[in-house]
Design a protein that fits this description.
Fructose-1,6-Bisphosphatase, Chain A, domain 1, 10 strands, 2 domains, 463 residues, five-stranded mixed beta sheet, alpha+beta
């Protein structure tokens, strides 16, 4: 099984005590052992082929939509469609459901044991973090995560550990999968602090412009920046194949607590720091001009974009909700960063770095055609608009990125207006129309990406 963590000299960057190092080793082991559960949930494969490989929680041969129709209106409907149950049976028999924490009791028990060892090692030095680990340990074995959620907001110390059934139900045919993350808190850089400090002002102006008559308060946001040490479960997929950033959100009513974690390319036998890994990823795809900090700022702003009070995950947006919510975060996050560049708070060079890594990530999300995956849909919509505006051009051997801020801003201002209109007048048809893109353009992108194995392709930057 592939290792889920980066091998790095953490003692050189963080001065851990012997007890903290012991806790770290146990939590890394917990992430690694969680992969057994994840691989079982994914039907034995880490590759999320949504079109061909349904979630293993469903009976063999039954698609989620078929199962939903079979149990609609019956006494079994609630249990069968619960996002944290395994379902057994067939069309001709009564379905049997088993909660995750029961079905995977042995595997989750091993994970809980590692968490208990970590808690015992660290309880004297960091009691609030130890108390949180104790609630996570109980939640794993009971399936009740509420107390762990509450304890998470009070957990202090240099370490952070996250383990939870993933809420990205659209990615997994309605059934959730476990994910885990181990990270170390760090001080924000100067530019990260600028982004953190100025977002509330931007968000307030945004809501006044689009919703002048509505009372839609912006919640306060408490942000912590972290470096990833280990990933497990479905987070392993995100890190290994997408070089993506992990975020963790919890709200206590007025304040959104956000832990934004420095991005990593997670793979076996890597002996590099986070910055070297992301640069290697960019170099692999010939995306010169990309910087690690530009990528972090882009994703930090994306996570702030989720706090804009337009919740597209509500029922009126149906199965389009997850893609719309991610599109909202991208659109308003990028507009915010471009505003900082225009105001002189971020340099023009940093603006180009942000745009380069931003568009590179859109290309990464559309590498393979997964039209039902929310991230594919939101990235395809943006690329389609950028192609139409001439910002991005693709030929058989190169990608031309015309990174003119004004042109990019026009594209995203239009998307922002469409999202605001959709929020004021929600409908499934309007949601579908907002997410419509030219599939021929995406096929062109995918053909280009395949040329990587045939000698590669290169980008051309026009500033």
């Amino acid at each position: 099984m592939a290792k889920a963590y980066i091998v790095t000299d953490i003692n050189r960057e963080h001065q851990f005590t012997p007890d903290e190092r012991r806790a770290l080793r146990c939590l890394v082991a917990a992430c690694d052992k969680l992969n057994r559960v994840y691989f079982a949930q994914r039907g034995g494969s880490i590759l999320l082929d949504w079109e061909k490989r349904p979630h293993a929680a469903y009976p063999k041969g039954l698609k989620p939509a078929d199962l939903a129709r079979l149990v609609a209106g019956t006494s079994q409907e609630e249990d069968v469609l619960d996002p944290e149950t395994m379902v057994f049976g067939s069309r001709r028999s009564r379905f049997r459901t088993v909660p995750y924490h029961v079905h995977f009791a042995e595997e989750l028990g091993e994970v809980a044991l590692e968490i208990r060892r970590a808690r015992q090692a660290i309880k004297k030095r960091h009691p609030t973090f130890a108390a949180y680990l104790q609630q996570v340990e109980k939640s794993i074995q009971s399936g009740n995560w509420q107390r762990a959620d509450d304890a998470a907001l009070r957990a202090g110390g240099p370490l952070w550990f996250y383990l939870y059934p993933s809420s990205t139900a659209d990615d997994h045919h309605g059934k959730q999968t476990f994910e885990a993350m181990l990270a170390v808190r760090r001080r924000p850089t100067e530019r990260e602090q600028i982004v953190t400090d100025h977002f509330p002002e931007f968000a307030k102006g945004l809501m006044t412009r689009f919703f002048p008559d509505a009372d839609m308060p912006i919640r306060r946001t408490k942000v912590q920046i972290m470096n990833t040490l280990a990933l497990g479960g479905s987070s392993l997929y995100v890190g290994k194949f997408m070089a993506s950033m992990i975020d963790y959100w919890r709200s206590d009513g007025e304040t959104v607590h956000a832990l934004c974690v420095s991005r990593n390319m997670i793979a076996a036998n890597y002996d590099e720091s986070s910055k070297k890994i992301i640069k290697a990823y960019m170099k692999k795809h010939r995306l010169r001009g990309s910087t690690f900090e530009g990528a972090v700022l882009g994703t930090l702003a994306h996570e702030f974009g989720h706090t804009i009070p337009m919740d597209f995950t509500l029922p009126q947006f149906g199965r389009h909700g997850a893609a719309l919510e991610e599109l909202k975060a991208d659109v308003f996050g990028l507009l915010f960063l471009m505003q900082l560049v225009q105001d002189g708070r971020l340099s023009r060079k940093m603006g180009r770095d942000i745009l380069t890594t931003f568009i590179a990530e859109l290309l990464g999300y559309t590498y393979k055609p997964y039209p039902k995956w929310p991230y594919y849909r939101m990235a395809a919509v943006q690329l389609d608009r950028l192609f139409a505006a001439g910002v991005v051009q693709v030929s058989s051997k190169q990608v031309v990125l015309r990174l003119y801020p004004q042109k990019v801003a026009e594209v995203y201002e239009q998307l922002a207006g469409e999202l605001a209109t959709l929020w004021r007048q929600p409908s499934l048809r309007a949601a579908r129309d907002t997410l419509t893109f030219d599939r021929r353009v995406m096929k062109q992108v995918q053909r280009l990406m395949r040329h990587e194995k045939e000698g590669g392709w290169h980008p051309v930057f026009v500033f």
